[in-house]
Amino acid sequence: xxxxxxxxxxxxxxxxxxxxxxxxxxxxxxxxxxxxxxxxxxxxxxxxxxxxxxxxxxxxxxxxxxxxxxxxxxxxxxxx
Length: 80
Hints:
4 helices
């Protein structure tokens, strides 16, 4: 089963702004970002949650948070 997505060259409005911001951060639009492209408000919220979890105030260091995210991804056999 494949997830239908909006290609970056077809993005408009909020989705285009989110894709452009993604490109500025990583020079590409990651598949995980594109996977939510059919619902840009949900994508915007998901990205905000990610930023809060990874960069917000926490008793864990940034490297500890990255290590936990990596361990969970490996456990789940996830590329992200």
